[in-house]
Design brief:
The chain is α+β, with helices and mostly antiparallel strands. The chain has helices spanning 5-10, 33-45, 108-117, and strands at 60-65, 68-77, 83-88, 94-97, 101-103. The longest helix has 13 residues, at 33-45.
């Protein structure tokens, strides 16, 4: 091991009464230390994440609202990624993220009624 515990902790050699160069006392990270730490952080941050497939125009599913989950139909894909214009059973148009939509199978009759109520922006 080429670094002392104090150097690894502080990122530099600690000062002492012995004569030394001032460049030795400047902070310096060990090679590849930052990339290893970033990789580990990313790995732990994303460990519970899962990929949600894209929804297509006319897909039926449930939309999350403050009152709970309600049936809805996707009428258009938004400008941002994972953003969709949806129409729940109330008939009002909403823009929601993919995170708030769950794909389910519904009758085509409900799909036709809901798509007629929303006009794309």
């Amino acid at each position: 091991m080429e670094y002392s515990p104090a150097k690894r902790l502080m990122g530099r050699f600690l000062r002492s009464t012995l004569p030394s160069y001032s460049t030795v006392l400047q902070p310096a990270e060990p090679k590849n230390a930052r990339s290893k730490i970033d990789t580990k952080k990313t790995q732990y941050y994303n460990r519970g994440a899962k990929w949600l497939p894209e929804l297509h125009l006319g897909s039926t599913g449930h939309m999350e609202t403050e009152q709970g989950w309600h049936p809805a139909v996707v009428t258009a894909q938004g400008d941002e990624s994972r953003s969709y214009d949806t129409v729940p059973s109330s008939g009002q148009c909403y823009r929601c993220n993919r995170r708030h939509l769950r794909k389910t199978l519904h009758s085509t009759q409900m799909q036709r009624v809901l798509t007629l109520n929303c006009h794309p922006r």
